[in-house]
Amino acid sequence: MSQETRKFEAEVAQVLHLVTHSLYSHKEIFLRELISNASDACDKLRFEALADASLTADDADLRIQITWDPDARTISVRDNGIGMTRDEVVANIGTIASSGTRRYLEALSGEQKADARLIGQFGVGFYSAFVVADKVTVVTRRAGQPTSAGVRWESDGKGEYTLDETDIAERGTTVVLHLKADEDEFLKAWQLRSLVKKYSDHVAFPIRMPKDTDGKPDPTEWETVNSASALWSRPKSEITDDEYKAFYKALGHDFNDPLAWTHNRVEGSQSFTTLLFVPEQPPFDLMMGGREERKGLKLYIKRVFIMDAAEELLPNYLRFVRGVVDADDLPLNVSREILQQNRQLEKIKAACTKRVLDLLEKISRDEPEKFAGFLSAFGNTLKEGIVEDASNRERIAKLLRFASTKGEGAAKTVSFDDYIGRMVVGQDAIWFVTADSYAAAAGSPQLEALKAKGIEVLLMFDRVDEWMLGYLNEYDGKRLRNVAKGEFPLDEADKAKQEAASKDAEPLIERAKGLLGDRVGDVRVSARLTDSPSCLALSDYEMAPHLARLLREAGQDVPDSKPVLEVNPEHALVKRLANETDDAKASDLANLLLEQAEITAGAQLADPAAFVQRMNRVLLG
Questions:
Q1: Strand partners, 222
Q2: DSSP codes, 280-346
Q3: How far apart are CA 415 and CA 364, in angstroms?
Q4: What residues are paired with 545 via a beta bridge?
Q5: Residue 377 pLDDT > 50
Q6: If we measure between CA atoms, which residue out of 147, 145, 142, 164 comes closest to residue 84?
Q7: CA distance 569 to 524
Q8: I need a surface site. Which of 1, 16, 113, 456 has the fewest CB within 10 A?
Q9: Alpha-carbon torsion 492, 495, 501, 502, what sign?
Q10: Nearest alpha-carbon partner for 429 in 358, 486, 494, 348
Q11: How far apart are CA 578 and CA 588, in angstroms?
Q12: What proportions of the chain, in percent to the nearest 5, are helix, strand and coil?
């Protein structure tokens, strides 16, 4: 096939524009990303060679080479890894494929600039080459293919690229950057070496550069410029915090330091090493991608990279964790299908989960401010574990924090243990209310009777809370109770007062039922209210109105249910209804009591215009 010219897909062109015009302060990122890609290519070849040794028979010494040419003004990054076919070049560079490029663009909106921390996370690291280069050439041949199967790709990053067939004697990939006029700093050997040391020292393959002779490379003498050892295999006592941080930044494609990490070696019938990092901030794709796109942990067997295996090594709710697992005794011919059913891997997964929860418990105990930052970033993701991981439900619940009626705003939170420690005498339940905002939760009329008795209520207003609480029925032997659901507990004295109030209000209740008709399932005197005129009451298993509204807005089917309206006979508005002789005015008052209750519960009014007209009629008297 002769030379072919193609256009980039629209999304790739957008990424190229963003990257080349926005990363002025992080130009050096290109070298980290190209080395990372080269390392991945060597990992993939080493794995495929387990099944087909002929792939590396001609050259088993996997390596990455970096060289520069001050006369031609080029930098070249070469690996002798797996290489690419023509179709793979098109899929990996010219089109959007599965790299996450589309989500990268969706994550950047308005005036927001391309964030260097995100480049690698979304698989678009190759394009960072165009930050310093006005032309990039890629020459590649896949392992196992004949020398005539080489491919040459070239582009100036402005919308098109060319593809050519070419003979290549050696397998692997070479990326040649033709530097822009003002990028001379990257033509200095010491600068390239320092960048390798800063970002890629941990790479397990040797990174080699030719000796510098008067500013020019000496192709006859090569030096290894990285430590080329697996950091996790070294004793913890020999690894500095700076080394851990540098390893995390390269592993997670992040410019921030990790929040915390845990490094452990397990010996015994099953031996393995884990090095797990908790990031400081979540990647943009944490909530976007499906499970098949999660790449939080890398699995190695005897320091041979096997796969990105986040789902097999950690539960979904810990998908924000980054790191490596290196096992000694898993079969080397392991495949995804075997991994998913492998008992040894289940033990490793349980151990990784325990290590992460241990680490989070330690941070929550010793560094509460740092832990508050973690919950701000990952709290909702952690809550998924209440549903997904029954065996660790109590441990996860212990880590959660919530605003409460005894706090000072949404930021002042308490744990379940804090709450239990200050329960009033005779209290046997953990009370909470759910809403779609802090203000709605704090202002919920259902809280009134409990607040009057000095009973603390947890205010839960994250979208995931209502779903999570369907699986968290108790904590430390204490039942969790929603203030808006079920029968309200009363002592004997209050029960007698409630019965008397209900009897006195029977005419009012019957009239309200008649006026509201099939808009309600029932009307009754409330034991929850002290100041407000009305509220909704739900059965123990009924969905909260604010959640039902959110699901309907998302296009989900939600079963219809008729609300139970509770009223406060002592409130002036309810008394006005009781004394109103005009049926039309009474109807307006009864419907307003229901609609007020629906609004405070986060429900969507069926007819907002009718509500406004009713309100105006009542206000005008």
A1: 210
A2: SS--TTTTTS-GGG---EEEEETTEEEEE-HHHHS-GGGTT-EEEEEESSS-TT--HHHHHT-HHHH
A3: 10
A4: none
A5: yes
A6: 142
A7: 10
A8: 1
A9: negative
A10: 486
A11: 13
A12: 45, 20, 35
Q: Please give the pLDDT value at position 24.
A: 52
Give residue 104's Cα distance to chain centre: 14
Rg value, the chain, Cα: 32
C-alpha 522/C-alpha 348 separation (Å) is 54
Strand partners, 474: 479
Tokens of 266: 């397990």
Give the type of residue at 352.
C
What domains sit in the chain, N to C, each tagged with a CATH number?
4-224 (3.30.565.10), 231-397 (3.30.230.80), 402-483 (3.40.50.11260), 490-621 (1.20.120.790)
Mean pLDDT computed over 443-463: 93
Residue 222 sits at φ, ψ, to 5 deg, of -110, 145
Measured in degrees and rounded to the nearest 5, phi and psi for residue 89 equal -60, -45
Q: What is the pLDDT of residue 287?
A: 46
Alpha-carbon span 349 to 563, nearest angstrom: 45
DSSP character string of 219-245: EEEEEE-S--S-GGGS-GGG--HHHHH
The Cα–Cα gap between 605 and 615 comes to: 14
What average pLDDT score do residues 465-487 get?
92
Supply 230's token pair: 């697996």
**Among residues 424, 388, 383, 425, which one has the least CA distance to residue 401?**
383
- H-run or E-run covering 564: strand 564-567
Q: Residue 65: which of 38, 33, 100 has the closest Cα? A: 38
What's the confidence (pLDDT) of residue 292? 41
Average pLDDT over residues 371-395: 96
Place 525 in a pLDDT band, splitting at 50, 70 and 90: very high
